[in-house]
Amino acid sequence: MGLDGLGSSSYGPEAALTILIPLGALGLVYLGPVMGCIIALLAILYFSYRQTLAAYPTSGGAYAVAKENLGEYPSLLAASALMIDYVLNVAVGVSAGVGALVSAFPSLHPYILPLCLIVVAFVTLANLRGTGEAGWLFALPTYLFIVCFLGVIAYGLFRIVTEGDPTPVVAPPPLAAATGAAGLWLLMHAFASGCTAMTGVEAVSNGVGSFREPVIRNAYITLTIIVVVLALLLGGIAAIATSFNIGAMSQTEEGYQSVLSQLIGAVVGFNTFYYIAMCSLLCILCLSANTSFVGFPRICRMVAADGYLPKGFAQPGRRLVFTAGILFLSGFASLLLMVFGGITEKLIPLFAIGAFLTFTVSQAGMVVHWRRQEVKQPAKLAMNAVGAVATGVALLVIMLAKFTEGAWITLVAVPVTILLLRAIKSYYDGLDRELRQSGPIVLEEVEPPTVLVVTESWNRLSERAIKFALTLSPDVVAVHLVRLGGPENDEGEKALREKWHIDVEEPVAAKGLRPPRLMLIPAPYRELHEPLLRLIEKLDADAPERQVAVLIPETVKEKWWQKILHMNRAGNLRKQLLKFGGPRLTVVTVPWRLSRQEG
Amino acid sequence: MGLDGLGSSSYGPEAALTILIPLGALGLVYLGPVMGCIIALLAILYFSYRQTLAAYPTSGGAYAVAKENLGEYPSLLAASALMIDYVLNVAVGVSAGVGALVSAFPSLHPYILPLCLIVVAFVTLANLRGTGEAGWLFALPTYLFIVCFLGVIAYGLFRIVTEGDPTPVVAPPPLAAATGAAGLWLLMHAFASGCTAMTGVEAVSNGVGSFREPVIRNAYITLTIIVVVLALLLGGIAAIATSFNIGAMSQTEEGYQSVLSQLIGAVVGFNTFYYIAMCSLLCILCLSANTSFVGFPRICRMVAADGYLPKGFAQPGRRLVFTAGILFLSGFASLLLMVFGGITEKLIPLFAIGAFLTFTVSQAGMVVHWRRQEVKQPAKLAMNAVGAVATGVALLVIMLAKFTEGAWITLVAVPVTILLLRAIKSYYDGLDRELRQSGPIVLEEVEPPTVLVVTESWNRLSERAIKFALTLSPDVVAVHLVRLGGPENDEGEKALREKWHIDVEEPVAAKGLRPPRLMLIPAPYRELHEPLLRLIEKLDADAPERQVAVLIPETVKEKWWQKILHMNRAGNLRKQLLKFGGPRLTVVTVPWRLSRQEG
């Protein structure tokens, strides 16, 4: 949990520095203040989210908070922003991880996109198989990452303090000459990009249900650790990057080095430690992508339980649905990676929008929550209000700064998703209204139905079906499907009618029952249902109020090879009759268990 | 039709020469006599098959001939040999075609296997889409091939006659020094390999149904053309290869040149004509692979009509079955290509066995055919007897010479296939015996069944089901599936029972009918059928003779999105009940058409 938050600390500063590229070396001057703003925002978020956790100890995600306090549309806004962000989180995490990889091994640079797709495929397969309880597998790279990077930052700061103006062990690539002037606009851009560093915070409140007892305390601790580590990393990176003259490079450039890669190189050089640290970075970013595979089904389940997604998603443990969710997630993430060539900096604008949308909706929901409480807690209300305003302003800045760089995609996708969720909900609502029963049962004439027994030849299967039909209704018609007409078939028909008379009509009449009629109708292969439906229409015309039940004898296939050896004709016929038959048609399936039928 | 026969003329001589490699230049001396034997055998085959065509003008394939004249097992032998050979024909045709390609473009040599697989995939896709009536598409490369190669051979022979000892335009690679001595064994090998050239002849008699009227005349003409062209090609290739010192190379060798490639190079050089000729060779070999995709479904249809393959294969135009056949064919061919690395010379031993098995069985069948005729035709009988003996001897030679080189695979696969076909037949026969009806219907007590109506909530769906159930039987039980027990559910239960009393029991009793009972049974999700089956068992214990009908209301999904929005719970429940329910259980499906239900 919260791996998201740590992973994002690596691409946050990177994204901010990328925006400052046009300023050249001058840009670094502004890095400190921009990071300061981001850390301040982080602090506000921290305190607001502490309150959310306390108020909603069981799953205090933005969707739940918005649903309770703000009503349907804000909750759908939060839900769709979250769902879209889970997809983007996979794409961003994987592409940043691959960015770390190609920094360490520059020869892999031409293969960024294929590497991204391979990592997505790998994570998908691992999740399809079920990751199980591999807690240490997740914990190890996380601790390694924290130790490595806090260590490097501490050592870097130590060198800055002791050496004054330290010489990098491996000099970072020289910064380009300034090609633009610093303006408020550019700084807003940098701020907007750096904000991505905070995207992981929401994960804690969504995942609060999976913490151990005492839940709130554990969630508090996790949130605190994440925010403190994140702040230390952001601040440290900003300080060191400024002192060592480290700027961002475009990921599309040959010889690309991520900011963190340059940073370790400058502080300690490209030694074994460097490779360990970069490896932990790759792992943590892939794991942060993995959190989506936990979070996405969870949000889908919540939304489906309210009827905004197919009901199947609301049932835990439905293998097929679970698989569908994972494939949807990895499919869309792969698509995004392909569209943007696996370049992190291009994906980030899309991502930040969704994250800050959910922040703002969630905080706004909390404000309403506090207002509704009987015991007023103005301090808490104020805190969440500050949070809502701060994240709202940040959202506006991001929207303005990043609109043309891809943010518009998210801004289009969110309402489209909302419309889709609404459409699903209104379908279920309509169905509910249609089926709702009010008042007692209305009985018309209770008359036994006409029972049609479908046979292809006169054998024990059809004998059993006829016997059963006689128990249901006195009006039984055996419909014998004949392949093709023609003169020679006429004789077969005559023989069949005679056999029918002796074998069926006479014994039934002897029992004092009305003997079943035999009807021969020609039916070409594969279209058994059409002549049957025509016959039923005719029967309907004769007795418009009468129900019609079609009896289909079906062999039960218990072994896989029986499925191959028998064509599923009975099943197909049933499907067609149900689909095209009128409202008074019912299909009765009489099973015949092969080779252990008793009677 | 018959493209097979022409395609095989290219790898026949090649295969024979490959065997002669160890003899070095000396081997060429023996090529003439070996080819002579092969052409003599071809002549015998030609006259025997003419008689087969005349006697069985509608589909005179080996299976049909053997079935009529020799009985079950010989016909199955022919059928399985034919089916296996259709698979091998794809593999051999494609690998020989790719061999021609890499001869023309030696830089493609490392990619033989991938190229083979791509060609198989291409042919498969074309056949899945349906090749339609593209007659000219097939005819053009065939005519081109005939014109090119007969032209080259004629020009080569002309040069031999005029120049005496002609100099090759492009010298073929020098022949290796002799590493072995010529012996009868080696010549038998060469003969066995060269016999592959004849594999295409059977295709004409299998495909005779698709000729235009007058069928026999057209089949005669085709057969004659194929055999004459084949003989000319074989003889010409042998003569030219001997004069120009052309020997075979191993396809695995770098710089591999097929015999035909060397031959054109030696006679006319590597000019534009060379590339046109090689291109026509590639096309004709791919088309010869394609004949399998026509022939394989046809033989499957014949065999399935007799009950030796799943009945579905016997129905023309069943898309699914057709697709299954094509995928089976290309899957196995690809597997063979992968196992043998796409090398033609390794596949040929497997292929020749199957072809000569069918020749021999078919000829033997014809001998029996003539013996059974009232008007004796000793000449015809003798002709077919000669054919049977000659192909039988050739089969023996091939088996002996090629056993360790892969022929054993075919010799194992044929009986395995026969056993499988027999097993399928005996399954169908057993089923037939089990279901056969003898004598009149036996009626015990005709008593209406107990009808269980499965409901999950009391709505219009269940109302309709209850109303229908009342028309079938006075003994109706509504089974309400309850999710989970517990104290709060007890109250829900009480409310439900009260509602049931007012809404159902009272109105039904007022009509003078026995009111349906309400039973509440707890059922966890996904396992609806288990508690139901337990209930049915209990009912069975109470009234062991009584039939039980389970009524399941099912919403009819007419749109694809409805299938997503509704889980197919009714369908799953029906499947489970049919599978696990006792012999007296029947399932009734009451359809509910969404949003246009009338009553």
TrEMBL record, chains A, B:
Indicate the principal place this protein occupies in or around the cell. membrane
One GO MF term on file is: transmembrane transporter activity
| One cellular-component annotation, GO | membrane
User: Membrane topology type, per the record?
Assistant: Multi-pass membrane protein
Q: Name one Pfam family in it.
A: AA_permease_2
- Cellular compartment(s): Membrane
Q: Which InterPro entries match?
A: AA/rel_permease1, APC_K+_Transporter
UniProt keyword annotations, A-Z: Membrane, Transmembrane, Transmembrane helix
The answer to whether keyword Transmembrane helix applies is: yes
Which stretches are transmembrane? Answer: 20-47, 86-105, 111-128, 135-158, 178-198, 219-241, 273-299, 320-341, 347-369, 381-401, 407-424
Q: Which residues form a coiled coil?
A: none
* Protein name (database record): APC family permease
> Which species is listed as the source?
Rhizobium deserti
